[in-house]
Amino acid sequence: MRGGFGDIPTTKLFPLLTPADVDSLHQVARTVDEARRDGAAMDWEWFPEHAAFSGRQVGTPIILGLDVTEPAEQGDQLEFLLQVVWTDQGQLAVDAAVNVACWCRTDHATHDVDALTVMVSDETSLPEAFRATAVRLTGWLAEPHDADYWRAKAGLPPR
Length: 159
Ligand SMILES: [Zn+2]
Hints:
Helix content is 27%, strand content 26%. By secondary structure, it is an alpha+beta fold. The chain has one domain (2-153). Bound molecules: zinc ion. Zinc ion is lined by residues 102, 104, 108, 111.
């Protein structure tokens, strides 16, 4: 399902959240919305079928995610991602990444040029992990939305 952060059934996706936790997630989501240059609200995507961990599976079960895809030249790609996922061990984690198309001699398809994963644990709550990754994401969104800029930063060949 897709929509604004306010449309997300947060306590259905994350049954252990307290009302204060939910407030915290909304507050953080607003800072992410504000990082969008065109002023449009972010388009979140969520998967209620992944709310409960269902064991190890092919692919990463995404519970909640945000994918800001920048318009790029044909065949090129620049994506900013924020995702709440299950690890193989059934632990919640929040991932953020900047992803670009690969123009190496050997085709790797895409590269994560920057990434951050924060595991949810007894020491780090989901709202804390969400905040830490969202801060990183908004930092990235303030940098140029140009795939070659990100490739250069990571020492990868330009398009
Ligand atoms: Zn490559």
